[in-house]
Every structure is written in structure tokens, then in C-alpha cells.
Amino acid sequence: MSERGFNAVSSVNEEIFTPLNHYGPVTGLTIYKKYILAGNGCILKIFKVNRETNKVSTVFSQQVFKRNKIHNISVSPSGERVVVNGGRSFAVLNLTELINSTDKIRITEKAINEWIITSEFLGENQLLILNSHNTIYHLDVSDKEPGQKFKLLDTIDCNEKSILYSGSIRLLDDGRILIAAGTVMSGVLIWEMNSKRIVHNLTEHEGSIFGVKIDRAGKYMISCSDDRSIKLYDFEKGQLLATGWGHGSRIWNLEFFKDSTGNVRIMSTGEDCTVRIWKFETDNELLIQEQLWENVHRGKHVWSGDIDDVDLQVCVTGGADGRIRLHDLVSSKRSTKDYTLDIVFEKAGIKSKKNEIIIEYFELPSLNYLIMSTSQGNIIVFDQVQETFTRVELASEETEKFVKFGLMKGFQDLNTVILCTRNGSLLLLKFAVGKIQPEKTWINDEYLQNNKVTNFMVEVDENRSTYYLFIDTPNHKTPFILRELKADRGQLTLTKTILLNQPHQTSFTTTDMVIDSTNNWLILGSRYVTLAVYDLSSGSEALDLQFIGKKLSSGDTITSVSIIESKHKEVSVLVTVRDGVYMYIKISQDEDSKFHLNIYHHNKVSRGFIEGGLLENQNLILYGFKSSYFYVWNETKQLEITSELCGGSHRQWELFKYENHTGEMDYKFVYINKSTLNVKEHEGRFSSSNYGLINDGTHGREIRDLAISPELLGDGSRLLMTASEDTTIRLNKLHPNGTIENFWSLNNHVSGMQRVKFLSKEYFASSAANEEFFIWKLGKFKDEIPVTTEYARLKPASDNPDLRVMDFDSYEYAHGFIIATVYSNSNIKIWLFDINSKSFQLVVDDFYATCCILNVNFIRFGDDIFLQIGATDGHIAIWNITQNLSQFTISQTTSTLGKSLIKQQLHQNGIKGLLIKQLKNKFRIVTGGDDNSLILSELTQKNNQLFFETLDFVEEAASSTITSICSAGEDSFIVTSVDQIIRKWKVSNGKLECESARYTTIADTGCSDSVTRDQDTMAVIGGAGVSSWSC
């Protein structure tokens, strides 16, 4: 280190590293008119919202600070200028220039000696800066020339220099300038700048103050704290008016609604990844929570937010996951319509019997009718425009057929509702415009032979030419009944009845059906995650089962089956399972008419139960229940579309989904709760605008490891896997320009991740705590979307595993892979994994010492195979395992490693980063460790003997722990370290030379990987976010 503690290789030829893309925490947000200004780490981004189309475009993106993150953004009164601040830095910029320029803007970064809490314009040419010691710097910022020579006009304080955690500045219309200061010791200080007088000292909180604001009119104050509460005060009196409870953890941000004509309303965000809207009512000591958006970001922490309830009618949030999301306030104001069952029955003219309830729903959207059936056989038409309830006129004997049983489906395009009785007879109700009473048609059963119906389902082919009615019965000896109907001028006519012999098993309870029109196949979903296929193409009126796939996954009941792609003799279906599993399954038929089934994508959501799913513009939409909530979830984008506190799944409910006139997907959720009919509508204002996701991100927690695929895809991209401490793996594409496109978030692991690596272009593997080691198989959907499924899982050595699989390495052999896994207790295991049988056979089982092993690699010299490890004791050890592998192929017995050929201490502590590069007749080994040093070594073999030699040693290669090393070509490599500096080193004449060193915007830098093509290297750096670089 230098005398001042500055590492000599912290800034070297920075231009060699070119930043491509950054995905990291969003720590500052401001809405100004139709623009959203965001602090994405050191980078300022500006988005423009089109009020008419709801489309959002990026108009500016540039790094404004060298190192500090942007925490606050304020716009001047005229909108001409904007100030951003973070850490000790601030910059005053021309907003008009930022919005309109197509070139890189020259930015002058200024700094003070203390942490800046917030900043605010006083007019156009003066700036107020509040620092962490509760002091205001009053600056003249009128100089707009390059270099910006600002003047300090005054330094102002209130004689109370508490250390601040938060604060805000409010300029009132009467000329008063109010400072709201949130201290680290649970107090809120409100003082007036001009008089330096403390107006209020509020001590109602217990814990550090994370946010404090004064409303525009100067009537109210709000604050939030480590105590998980929000407090609203009367400003003039300093009196506590109400407290808001509901956040499950710390609250980071508060904003008043701009419209103050009605009740006081507040937006809050916090560590629990929720956005909450609160309302204050006079004489109520508790704030009323009006709206709750859960899981608005991934992982933990919604760090920033702002609200515009007047113009754009949105609130915007930024999270630790790097994502920026718009939330629609217009649809949130549409409250759920509710009607007590007593009122429903009374208006429908029904004298309800005891315990009569609504049991089925079907909506006819073109007529705005909601059709409902009751447990006493009544059919009710709810006109949702006129809000009238009318009983369908049925004869008493007809009503009696639906008492305590009546399954109701329908076809919305025909305005037809169909009800099925217990004995299999069908009542078709044809509704028309202007007529509340439908036309009735009965289809009487001829086939059930006194058996009872267990399920009734309907389907229509993709051309809407044939309509299908399906009836299931519990007697497995009685065929399923499939009726085909044709529509003539909107009127259904029965044309054919097909009897389908049930699968030869005790019970096959159908739960959903779909018709593949391309191949004329009927696919049935059932309990126990079972699929059945019938080929309808023969035209026969009696068919046997063609194929059955049993227990396709863990879980119980298939809740939905839908077609996602169909070709000749091949169909792909989306299957959802109530326990939270969803699958992409390919069903195909070979030349011998034999059916085959392949699960090529399999995942599980951690959101409770799945009741169904669909694909919308390649976005996988799932819906179901979690605890007392019903949710609609975009699994592809990893965001919640809507939710409703309904009381849980044990009630009568239905979800209707359809495109509105603008092409957006709308949802209507109908349910009964506490003897009340509830109708909740969600209009997808931003569905076609990436669901309001205006800036994508990555994991919401620290990324532990990442890996780039060796295979170049057809579009020029490569697969990128990232593994996080939140136990998830994300399957992404890394595009040639450095952008990262996420496709899936994989949730199979239940412990914190350690490693993820590609085994080949078809397989990758992942390891975690609790001895979790999984092998995954990769595939493609529609030739462009990557998919994957867990292929095999290594069984832990004990019933209560507590070890971490710290690292692994592999190489291919004839029938699979040889895999080495190393553990936190110094255990080393080598496995033979057979792809065909998906089995692991233990080849070697031994211990290195008693310390934790951090990395492992296979090394091959000719026909000899060696195993190398690096551990927390700073040593490298190498064994020849050729004999172990040969012995296993003969005797199938597990062996030990024996004495290591080489054991060399290189570092004082753990070897965190290690790169092995094969050269001609030798291997180059570069290591970095906890001791901040970088060591170059060489491994050679002469006369069947290994030689290990250290060539160079750089003691202060970084200012803190070196965390990873990846290749950057033949003689160069990239090193990351905790000091947030990425460095490019090269080997020249056996010596290490630093080619470049540059600060990275990713904090907690812990992992990296790279790919080199045509002398150009692209590196991806992971930590608290992820960034891509070229060098």
C-alpha cells in the first residue's frame, strides 16, 4: 500500500475496460411531468411515458458519478435543471439537454466533505444541500459553463447537529423553508432554515428514522422508522394524528399524494418488497391501508419510489433487484363490487332456502352478463351494467335437477351457457342482446347407465368450428362421453357422440382437457399428475386410450392443460399442478403411431397453489392462492399482475380472462366471502408495455456465482446462469452488446447457492448448502427461448445434511460425466454420473484436512488425470487420480486419494480465486486470496513427475480480498475483488503486469466469468447486481 493507503493498481488505463450494461439497486426515483428520473447505481436514467399509449421509452442513460450511488434527484421549479446526489457527490445538470441529446453529456461531479442526505433547488440558480450532520449548505449554482464554479453562500444549522439517517427540504408558498431531519437515534427534528429555529422535536418512534417528509401545503408530516411504523403528524401542532402498521420489516420510503383536496393519502415502500397506500381519516388513530401490492420486486428491499396521482396516475418503485416498475393508480382506485347474497336473492326474486349459496359462475362479456347457479338449482343473470339480478325461468322439475349439483361451463363467443346435471343431462342456455331470458335446449343422457357425473368440461377447436362437451364418471368401466357440436348462426347442434374407454386403472379423475386441432388429439389432465391422450382422427365413435403418462412430477392434481405449440404429430402443452409445479411437455407420435412424452421445462413457484396458467405474448401467466390471497403472476417477468384478499381457496370462485378492445389482457375475479358476492376487475393498463417493467434487473439478493455457456446460439447470444443467495438460479441470455435477458427463475434449491457451471452445451450443474447438487438439462422452445428441467439430484450423505458443496468440476466421458465435489468439511468426492440411468456412482471418497475446500479442478497431462484443490488454509494440493478411475471401472469399489503429489502454501488465508490455463506441455495457475495477493504459478510434467513452480507474486494486487479470476485471452485474465475494482492482468516473460484497473458499479463483487472471441473479451461481473464489460 502507498503511504496514504491507496492501492497502486486501483486506476490504470481505465479506457481498456468498456462498461456495457449495469444491473444493480435503484436507489433514487423522481417523477417530473411525463418523465421518470432514476438513479441506477452511479447511472442516471430518464424514461418518457406516453400518456395516450402508456408506452415507455428510455431517453437518457449515462454514468454521472465515478463511484457514489445516486440517492436523491430533484428538479428545479421551471424544470430546466436537475440535481442528483449520492454519498458525498452531487451534480447539477440541464434537464432539457439530457432529454434531447443523442450524444454523451459532459458532467461535472462535485463533492462536499460529508454525506449528503438530500438536495433541493431554491429558485433556478441556488441550491440547498442537507448533510448528515443536520447542516444546510446554501450554494450559488448559477454558473452553467463547463467546470461549473459554484459558490458557497452560507452554512446553516439549528444548533442541533444530530447524525442523520434521512431528511427532506420543503419550500412552502409563504416563503418558509422547512428542514425535516430523521436522526439515527429515533428522533425527528423539524426546523425552519431562515430563523434556524427548531419547530418540532418528535420522539414517538423507536429506532432510526429512515424517511421523513412534509406535505406541499405544510399541513402534515410523515415519518417511518426501524420500528416498522408510519406516523402522521399535524404540522402546526406537532401532534401525532395516526400510526400505520402493516409492513413486515423496515420501511425505506414515504411519499404524500399530490392531490390534497380529499383525505390525506400516503405511499410507502420497504424491505418487505411491498408498496402500500394509506389513507387518514379524522379521529382514527390508525392509518387505513387502502391498497397493498406484494412482491413488487425480487428478493428484498424496495429502496426508492415516487408517486404522481394527478397527471400520470402512477407510482414508480425501484428495488435491490435493479428493476424499475410502474404501478397503475387508475385501476387501483376501482374498488371491488360486492353484493350480499341476501340482496342478490332478493333482487332476483328468489326466496332463498337455508344455506343456499352460489356455486358456479360463467361470464358472457359481450353482453356484460355474469351467469350464476346456486345450490338449490336456481340460475341467476347478473347484468353488470344495470346492476340487476334476474332469475332464469325454469320449470320446477328443471330446477330440481340442479339442486346440490350443477356444473356450469359455456362458450363466450356463442353467448351460450351449459349446465350439467348429476345424471349427465345437459341444459344449453342461449343468451341474446336485449333479452335477459335465454333460449333453452336439453340434451338428455343416453350413456351413463345410472352412473353419476364427477366432472364436466368444454373445449373448442382453434378454428371455432367444432365445440366439445366432455363428461367424466367415477366408474372406470363406464366410458368418458365426448360430444361434438357445430354452430349454425350461433346455435349449437349435436353432431356426434364419442365413447372413450377409460384408462385401465382404479381411478382416473379428470381435471382439465384440451383439443389439439392440428392432430385431432384429446389430452386429459388428471390427479396424481397424470396425462392421457386419445386420437380422435380415426372418426370412430368408440375409442381406446392411446397413451398415458403417469406421475410426471411431484404433486397431486393437474389444474390446467393448454396448448403452446402444435405441429404435425407433435404438440407442446403447458401443464400446471396445484402444488406449485408447472411444466412444458412435448407429446409426439412416431412413424409406428407410438406416442412419446418429454418434459423439457420444469419449475416450481414459491407462491402457494397454482390453479391455472396461460401463455400471453410468450409470457407465462399463472394464477392461484397464497394464504388468504388470490394472485395473478407473470412468471416470465417475475412480477405480480394483481391480487385480491379473498380469504383463501376454500370458497366458490372463478377467474375470467380476455383481451379488451386495446389488446390488453383483462382479468375478472369473482368469489364469495362472508356470504357476499365480490367482483374484482383488473384492467391491464401496462400489459403491452412490458407489464410496467421499464427497467429490467436481476436477483434481489447477492449473486454468488455465474457462468457463461461455451455454445454460441443462432442469434449471437450465449446462455448465462446466475445463482444467488436467495436460493434461485436465473436462466438468461447474454447478448453481443452485453445486455442480459432473463427467461426463467429456477426455484428447486432450498439453500443458499454456492456454484453454477456448465457441464456441456446440453447440461449445467448447481451446488448449494445442505449438500444440494443438481444436474439440469437444457433445451429450446420455438428455437429461441431457452428452457430447462432438473435432470438428476445427488442424494445427501445423511438425513440431516449440514454441509455446503463449495465447488465442483467435471469432464465428459462415454456415458456421462466424471464429477468432483468438494465440501465445507474438507471432504472430497469423485462421482461417475451416467446420463442414461441418471445415477451417481461414488469413485473416490476422502478428506483433505479439516478446513473448508473452496475450489476444485481436473487437470489432464496426456493419459494422466489429476485433481487439484484450493482451501481456506491457503494451500494448493494435487493428486493423480488415474489409478482411482481405472480401479473403479474394474472393481466398482470406492477408493481414497492417498497422499497428495503436491501440497504448496501460496496464500496466508483462503484461495478465493483460481484460474488454470492449459498451455503447450504445461498449465498456468493464477490464484488470488483473502490476503489481497495474486500469485502466478506453473505446473509441468517431466518423466511422469509433476513439478510446481511459483513464478511471480504481487502482494498488494488489490485493496481487499480477491474473489474471482476469469480468462481474458491467451495471456490475460480479469480479477475481481471486494474493493469494487476490476483489474486486467497479463503474463509477460513469467511476470504479472496490470494492464487496466477500473471501478465497477457492482458492490460486493464476488464472481465473474468471461468469453473471448476474435481477440475481444466480454466479462460479466456479479455481486449486489451484475454488469457486463468488454476489454
Describe the structure using short key phrases.
Methylamine Dehydrogenase, Chain H; 1031 residues; 5 helices; mainly beta; disordered N terminus
Q: Looking across the biggest beta sheet, what order are the strands in?
A: 38-39-40-41-45
Largest sheet: 5 strands, mixed
C-alpha Rg, in Å?
A: 33 Å
Q: Overall 3D geometry?
A: flat
Report the CATH C-level class of the domain at 159-327.
Mainly Beta
Number of helices: 5
Structure description:
With 1031 residues, the chain is mainly beta. Among the domains are: 26-157, YVTN repeat-like/Quinoprotein amine dehydrogenase (Methylamine Dehydrogenase, Chain H), CATH 2.130.10.10; 159-327, Methylamine Dehydrogenase, Chain H; 703-801; 803-905, Lipocalin, CATH 2.40.128; 913-1031, Methylamine Dehydrogenase, Chain H (7 Propeller). The strands form 21 sheets. It has a five-stranded mixed β-sheet, with no helix packed on it. Strands 1-85-84-83 form a four-stranded antiparallel β-sheet, with no helix packed on it. The longest helix has 10 residues, at 882-891.
Structure in a nutshell:
The protein is mainly beta.
How would you summarize the topology of this molecule?
Blueprint: E1 18-23, E2 26-32, E3 35-40, E4 43-49, E5 56-63, E6 72-75, E7 81-86, E8 89-94, H1 95-100, E9 110-111, E10 116-122, E11 126-131, E12 135-140, E13 151-157, E14 164-171, E15 177-183, E16 188-192, E17 197-202, E18 209-214, E19 220-225, E20 229-234, E21 239-245, E22 251-256, E23 265-270, E24 275-279, E25 288-293, E26 302-308, E27 314-319, E28 324-328, H2 329-332, E29 337-340, H3 341-347, E30 358-364, E31 369-374, E32 379-383, E33 388-391, H4 396-400, E34 407-411, E35 416-420, E36 426-432, E37 435-443, E38 455-460, E39 467-472, E40 480-488, E41 491-500, E42 510-516, E43 521-526, E44 530-535, E45 542-543, E46 547-549, E47 558-567, E48 570-577, E49 581-589, E50 595-604, E51 609-616, E52 619-626, E53 629-634, E54 639-645, E55 653-659, E56 665-672, E57 676-682, E58 693-695, E59 703-708, E60 718-724, E61 729-734, E62 740-746, E63 753-758, E64 763-768, E65 773-781, E66 785-793, E67 805-813, E68 816-823, E69 827-834, E70 839-847, E71 853-861, E72 864-871, E73 875-880, H5 882-891, E74 902-905, E75 911-919, ...
Parallel strand pairs: 41-45
Antiparallel strand pairs: 1-85, 2-3, 3-4, 4-5, 6-7, 7-8, 8-9, 10-11, 11-12, 12-13, 14-15, 15-16, 16-17, 18-19, 19-20, 20-21, 22-23, 23-24, 24-25, 26-27, 27-28, 28-58, 29-57, 30-31, 31-32, 32-33, 34-35, 35-36, 36-37, 38-39, 39-40, 40-41, 42-43, 43-44, 44-46, 47-48, 48-49, 49-50, 51-52, 52-53, ...
